[in-house]
Every structure is written in C-alpha cells, then in structure tokens.
Write a structure and sequence with these properties.
Bound molecules: zinc ion
Number of domains: 2
Strand order of the largest sheet: 3-2-4
Largest sheet: 3 strands, antiparallel
Strand content: 15-25%
Distance between the termini: 9 Å
Length: 116
C-alpha cells in the first residue's frame, strides 16, 4: 500500500531536477542516507513551524520502535532518534559528545516502515 507521509515538515530541501520539497524529521534521516550513498551534498534547511506537511511516498505503517525514522539511539531505552534529533543545545549534549549515537532500528531494519 502506497500513501503519503502526513508528519509535520521539519526541513525544506532541493533535489536535482526537482522542485523544492519539504520533509519531516523522520524522512530527513532516510534522505540523508540516500544522498550520502550517491555522493550528493544535501542541504536541509530548518523550517519554522509553517504548517506544511511532509508528502514523501510511504508504504506500510510507521515503525513504532523508531517512530518511523529507521534509527534508534544507543541508549538503554532505544529511544527513537527523532527524539534526540529534535533537541536543541544544551539538551542534546550527550549527542554532541558522541555518547548517544543513532543505530539502525532492529524492528524495521532501518526502513522506518513495517507492513500494517
Ligand atoms: Zn515524512
Ligand atoms: Zn523501526
């Protein structure tokens, strides 16, 4: 089943040969990964809360373990990475220091979605 993501958009970005798009926090991780793989410099520009909605294509339902972002923190609770990524300094000090790092979610294998 293919539908579109309806999360609040967190960033705007441009992709070669496409118009400017907006993307939610969870999807931005996946897009960064794709860009890295193909060696594309991806610039994500933080959005003010302007009410725009992420419209990335998705299949299945968001993985509950990682909040749909495909990544969890290496802390005891395996907190979805969206939680840590949304923190502003100094609340994210542990991330800045490298004590908390993102790891692939073991439930969805980093996909962020599971078949519902
Ligand atoms: Zn999204
Ligand atoms: Zn997951």
């Amino acid at each position: 089943m293919i539908s579109t993501c309806e999360n609040k958009a967190a960033y705007r970005y441009t992709w070669p040969s496409k118009d400017e798009s907006v993307i939610c926090l969870a999807h931005s991780f996946k897009l960064r990964g794709v860009a890295e793989k193909i060696g594309l410099h991806l610039q994500l520009i933080k959005l003010d809360d302007d009410g725009r909605i992420c419209n990335q294509e998705v299949t299945g339902v968001p993985c509950g373990n990682c909040d749909g972002c495909g990544l969890v923190a290496n802390d005891d609770e395996r907190t979805p990475w969206t939680h840590w990524a949304a923190l502003e300094p100094p609340a994210n000090l542990a991330v800045q220091m490298g004590m908390i790092r993102p790891e692939e979610c073991e439930v969805c294998g980093g996909e962020g979605r599971v078949n519902g």
